[in-house]
Amino acid sequence: MATTRHTFLGSYKLQKRTTNALIHTILVIISLLMLLPFWLVISASFTDNQSLVIDGYQIWPFHFSTQAYSYLFMSPDSLVRAYGVTAFVTLFGTFFGLLIMAMMAYGLARITGSTRKAFTFFVLFPLLFSGGLIPFYLVMTKIYNINDSLLALIFPYLVSPWYVLLLRSFFNQLPSEIIESAKIDGANELRIFFQIAVPLSTPALATIGLFVLLNYWNDYWLAMLFITNHNLFPLQYLLFQMLQNAEIMNKSPQVEHVAVPGQTLRMAMAVVAAGPAIFVSLGLGRYFVRGITLGALK
Amino acid sequence: MAKSAKLKVILTTDIGLTPREIFFKNLRRYFSKNGWLLLLILPGLIHILMIQYAPMFGIIIAFKNYRNADGIFGSKWVGLDNFKFLVASGTAWHITYNTVLMNSLFILTGTAAALILALLLNEIYASKLAQVYQFTLFIPFFIGSVIVGYIAYAILSNNGFIDYLLKTHGQQIISFYMNPEDWRVILVIANLWVGIGFGTIIYLSGIIAINPEFFEAAQLDGANKLQQIWGITLPLVRYLVVIQVLLAIGRIFTANFGLFYFVPQVWKNGGLLSTVDVIDTFVYRALYGGSLTGATGIVSLGMAAAAGFYQSVVGLALIVGANMLVRKISPEHALF
Known about the structure:
The complex is a heterodimer of chains A (about 300) and B (about 325). With about 300 residues, chain A is mostly helical. Chain A has 15 helices and no strands. Chain A folds into two domains: about 1-65, no CATH class; about 75-245, MetI-like fold. Chain A has helices spanning about 1-45, 50-55, 65-75, 75-110, 115-130, 135-145, 150-155, 160-170, 175-185, 190-200, 200-215, 220-225, 235-245, 260-285, 285-295. Chain B has two domains: about 1-65, no CATH class; about 80-335, Orthogonal Bundle (MetI-like fold). Chain B has helices spanning about 1-5, 20-55, 70-75, 80-90, 90-125, 130-140, 145-155, 160-170, 180-210, 210-220, 225-250, 255-260, 275, 280-285, 300-330, and strands at about 65, 75. Chain B has a two-stranded antiparallel ribbon with strand order 1-2. In chain B, helix 5 crosses helix 9 (about 180-210) and helix 11 crosses helix 15 (about 300-330).
């Protein structure tokens, strides 16, 4: 009896180890396939432009060259400017967006009476029905007149109804005893919000803030709709312009005489634009994981 | 519950006051109680009014022949002409077909792949490598659609990675950007690549939440891994899957603009429009790049607004319907 049990467990463990090895192999292959496209772009950015045009995109940069990067940094004005615009829009938009959304969410969580339901529906309805792109565009440009400005890149995304509702469900979970006792001590709701509710929900605010930040950082849409001034191009929109026409970088006099390494320049541009964002995102990965499960399971 | 909510509280101090006085008294009480909260809500409220609600009234231009010179209110009413044109030209059917077909393929492939990966990750979740795999699956989610367009170009262009492989093996190269039929598959793969990490995390979190005692009991009864997955894991995450799929069906009329615009680079590959033109890209092209009319002919802003209006109305019906079903299955997962 004892021996059979022993061999049963033994064979079970062996079986488990082979299954796990198989699973690891599958996952390693899938992970490599996920990373391959990135590697192709990086490899291409370090390839000689001539070679890229003739031989094609290869796994390894056989004709190694940093030509694309030196070209890119010879005249980095538009790139630096786009980084600046994106950084400003992201910081400004994330800070004020988060502030306004958190205030609203706290208000919705605490307000009493039948207005509570009415306000919540007011926030929810735009998630179900929208006027569509054309009316949005016309209202923004013809009535508010905010095209071709930094405001056009920030304002439309400040408040997102979905995030307001998520934040509201966070604030709903705050222990009401703390808030009530603060009220008895004479604090008004404004103070309670800033001095109690916000500090107690920093993890939630960080999670939502990260999503807002990513939305601003990766946004091309508002620029596609409202921006024509080159000086206001955000990063993603500059990338889009370059995808259409690599020569758009060739604006300054010091690079006029140099031939544009069109293909590799594009890829170098993609690396310089996406690289930092990927590293930051990976560092903050676990907040994203939490945010996603939260949005899905509410 | 509904009945008790309707009962009005009458305070003894209210006796003898006229209804008007009671109303104002209640109003004062409401404001003294909620004044600060209303102040907190106000900025968000104004923003939502300006950005979300104001365009809803702009929808009237779907029923107008919009001309820049006449403006939103000055343009002529044309009744349902814009809608009639969309239907008669076949555009309505064309963009609806592409949107719904591609989104259906995305839901099918995305759900299956995410579920399989979540099951695999769950088996080795104790290993530190699980985190590494999970983040690797996630990276493409962070980079934005424009970069996905760059990557697609590196792989699919005439000197791209695939054609390089074909050439070195003595095969004929493929001009992907000229074959509209290929793009259904390409976009399914691109969508999987971008979104797989997201879906996997949702299902993995559902699987991890399962009580481990179920599996221990099944093991003692001699169930192998596949039997455990079939008999325990799948039935227990079924709800989660059904809910995710239903919510995705609720959004089936809305396409991921970036994916359908930047990846096929439709602004220069008009020939691909027959398979990749979706409602969202159609409406955008009416606004900009009107010269690129491709399969759909010249489109006015009124017609584009009509397409947007149709998308919103059907979308509303779908999401409300999906939500009703979700509410029946599991009330706490309903959106509203």
